[in-house]
């Protein structure tokens, strides 16, 4: 016999003698054939035990500097009988695994204080009569776990009345015992179990074949509510219906979910089966703190490698799924970076995984934890076979509907965890840095698709190249990113004029890495005679249907602008179109990284913005160019007139404004525009046309009575008001 004070356990980091060992004595049942092989012992208490009963899986005997293992294989009959102070029965897992085989008859009978967790390792082959019974009392055990922290089926025999007098709130079944389970009387039923949680595989090792094996073995059909891996619910219900076993379906069949909290917020994690008898977790719903604008999920970090599931289950599956609409509703979120754990399975991106975030500026899947360049050839992300780069939403399930559920009374399924368009529902302006190792876009017969507004359901009149704003990175760590088509979108096209105030910032341009764009487009329609400002992250081709201008100075009461012949990137301009026009570039060029979109692009006193901006705290007098004719104090002014911004005004992203210093005194609300496009000086805006001098429109046609607009007069462009 070994006393608890003379043995050790292995906690994974070394050998230790925790205080609970003093509660036990160990009887050797199998002597090891040599010092370095394993023996076996049974365990009994040496006195009353209060609180959690923790039983080691292996105890080690120290001899010199060596430790010799004895597996704890047996809890003898009546070993802990009438120990009323025990609240939980737990087993300390050794790095070598569990070794417990037998729980004898009446081993825990009369433990009236047992109300927490009973954890039964998968290695157990038999549980004796009345092992956890109460003869003259009743109590509730919160959790009973069968098969904790083990894989593979085992033969398990239950005696009679194993849980007599007990009710169980949660029964956790860790995988399928199949035909290897037998019982001499009913062990569990809906009379003594409320919830059943099944953690096994959904196809070959599922709960349905488990029940089939138990149907004639008196094990019972336990539970009022059944919780299954999300992707197994429909399979289970359909199999029951197809085989006339509707009675095996509880009133509700729900998905297994768990709550995980980090510094960024709270995550609802969803259990799914991985196809080989194990489990994996999906990030199902992230509810982020309001101050989180840039989110990084590094799944190798400690906060994602701790025990994410209830400790009682003894399993910690990997997070290997990003579920549909996982980040929906977090409209302060500007970026999502997901970095896989190189030791885990690839991350599966489900359909519409990133949809429902209006403010999302980029998704970065190109980062890796590995330091081995050769590993970069194999992407750590997994996409459904035949996936495309489409941003059109693929699912209609409301985010307010409880997902992954089957209700028996209405015969209704509510589940997703499906879809082959991982980027479905993404705003068109969101940049996607594809996983490292992807050297080409997936092949598809489709080249363009419809653009949807930020409500996710309303189509616009715009179409976009299918590969627009998807960015590739070559497999070596030093290669630049590249993009076939780069697109920047105007607020009005995507929000239908409903954006205001803070929501302008949804369209902020944010770009973590410099990349090369083969073509670039600004999706904004300019109409003739409608003056506008613009500031873009790419250099546009010199427009043929209008002229770009920059600020030159002030001449009297007029603001003078001058034409630009060679536009540059990240530079603010004014644009006056002469016909319907869009701004774009057909030339390959580098798009610079933008990590702080609030940094303005200044040229003289002209300022460009990449984000929606309020003028409430602007120091100086800010002017914008009026896009159309307007009347102020009874006087009519043409498009192109400069108007002072009020402190309550906002400006859209990709616009520009003029900021004049207040050092020379107060500035008027209205300042007229003059164009300096000749060697002789400034062309003013005249109050009225001279009768003896002809005027021509932009197309060169003579105009007898010019009104408002742009004209050629005496060889100069002028704007009539």
Notable characteristics:
39% strand; single chain; 3 helices
User: What oligomeric state do the depicted chains represent?
Assistant: single chain
Tell me roughly what share of residues is in helical segments: under 10%
**Total count of strands:** 57
Summarize the biggest pleated sheet: 11 strands, mixed
User: Which stretches of 5+ consecutive residues score pLDDT under 50?
Assistant: 373-377, 685-693
Instruction: Provide the β-strand percentage band.
Output: 35-45%
Shape: elongated
- Structural classification: mainly beta
Mean pLDDT: 84
Gap between N and C termini: 107 Å
In DSSP terms (H or I, runs of 4 or more residues), the helix count works out at 3
Rg is 36 Å
């Amino acid at each position: 016999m070994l006393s608890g004070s003379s043995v050790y356990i292995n906690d994974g980091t070394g050998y230790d003698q925790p205080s609970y060992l003093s509660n036990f004595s160990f009887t050797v049942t199998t002597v090891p054939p040599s010092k370095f092989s394993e023996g076996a012992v049974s365990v009994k208490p040496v006195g009353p035990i209060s609180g959690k009963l923790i039983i080691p899986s292996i105890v080690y005997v120290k001899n010199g500097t060596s430790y010799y293992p004895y597996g704890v294989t047996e809890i003898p009959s009546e070993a802990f009988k009438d120990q009323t102070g025990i609240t939980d029965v737990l087993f300390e897992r050794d790095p070598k695994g569990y070794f417990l085989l037998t729980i004898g008859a009446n081993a825990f009978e009369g433990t009236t204080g047992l109300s927490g967790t009973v954890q039964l390792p998968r290695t157990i082959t038999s549980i004796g009569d009345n092992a956890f019974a109460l003869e003259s009392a009743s109590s509730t055990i919160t959790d009973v776990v069968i098969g904790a922290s083990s894989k593979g089926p085992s033969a398990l025999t239950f005696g009679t009345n194993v849980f007599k007098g007990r009710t169980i709130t949660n029964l956790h079944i860790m995988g399928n015992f199949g035909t290897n389970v037998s019982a001499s009387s009913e062990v569990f039923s809906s009379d003594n179990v409320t919830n059943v949680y099944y953690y096994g595989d959904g196809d070959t090792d599922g709960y349905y074949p488990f029940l089939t094996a138990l149907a004639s073995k008196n094990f019972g059909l336990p539970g009022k509510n059944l919780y299954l891996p999300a992707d197994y619910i429909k399979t289970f219900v359909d199999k029951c219906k197809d085989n006339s076993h509707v009675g095996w379906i509880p009133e509700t069949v729900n998905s297994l979910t768990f709550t995980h909290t980090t510094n960024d917020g709270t995550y609802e994690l969803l259990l799914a089966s991985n196809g080989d008898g194990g489990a994996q977790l999906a990030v199902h719903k992230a509810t982020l703190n309001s101050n989180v604008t840039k989110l990084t999920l590094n799944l190798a970090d400690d906060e994602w490698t701790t025990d994410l599931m209830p400790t009682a289950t003894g399993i910690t599956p990997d997070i290997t799924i990003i579920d549909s609409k996982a980040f929906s509703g977090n409209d302060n979120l500007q970026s999502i970076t997901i970095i896989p754990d190189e030791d885990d399975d690839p991350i599966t991106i489900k359909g519409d995984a990133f949809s429902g975030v209006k403010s999302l500026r980029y998704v970065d899947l190109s980062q890796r934890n590995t330091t081995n360049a050769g590993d970069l050839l194999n992407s750590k992300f997994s996409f459904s076979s035949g996936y495309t780069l489409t941003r059109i939403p693929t699912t209609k399930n409301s985010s307010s509907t409880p997902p992954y559920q089957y209700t028996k009374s209405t015969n209704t399924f509510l589940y997703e965890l499906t879809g082959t368009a991982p980027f479905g529902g993404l705003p068109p302006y969101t940049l996607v840095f594809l996983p490292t190792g992807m050297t080409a876009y997936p092949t598809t017969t489709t080249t363009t698709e419809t653009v949807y507004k930020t409500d996710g359901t309303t189509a616009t009149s715009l179409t976009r190249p299918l590969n627009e704003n998807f960015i590739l990175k070559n497999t070596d760590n030093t290669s630049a990113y590249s993009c076939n088509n780069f697109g920047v979108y105007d607020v009005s096209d995507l929000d239908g004029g409903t954006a205001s105030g803070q929501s302008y910032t949804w369209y902020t341009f944010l770009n973590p890495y410099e990349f090369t764009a083969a073509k670039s487009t600004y999706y904004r329609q300019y109409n003739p005679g409608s003056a506008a400002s613009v500031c873009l992250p790419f250099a546009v081709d010199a427009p043929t249907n209008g002229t770009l201008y920059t600020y030159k100075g002030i001449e009297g009461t007029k603001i003078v602008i001058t034409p630009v012949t060679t536009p540059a990137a990240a530079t603010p301009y004014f644009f006056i179109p002469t016909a319907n026009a869009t701004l774009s570039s057909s030339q390959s060029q580098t798009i610079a990284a933008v990590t702080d979109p609030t940094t303005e692009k200044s040229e003289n006193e002209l300022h460009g913005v990449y984000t929606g901006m309020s003028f409430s705290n602007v120091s100086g007098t800010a002017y914008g160019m009026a896009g159309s004719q307007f009347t102020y104090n009874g006087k009519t002014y043409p498009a192109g007139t400069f108007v002072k911004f009020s402190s309550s005004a906002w400006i859209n992203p990709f616009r520009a404004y003029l900021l004049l210093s207040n050092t020379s005194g107060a500035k008027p609300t209205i300042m007229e525009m003059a164009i300096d496009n000749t060697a002789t000086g400034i062309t003013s805006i005249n109050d009225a046309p001279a009768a003896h001098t002809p005027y021509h429109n932009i197309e060169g046609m003579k105009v007898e009575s010019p009104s408002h607009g742009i004209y050629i007069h005496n060889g100069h462009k002028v704007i009539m008001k």
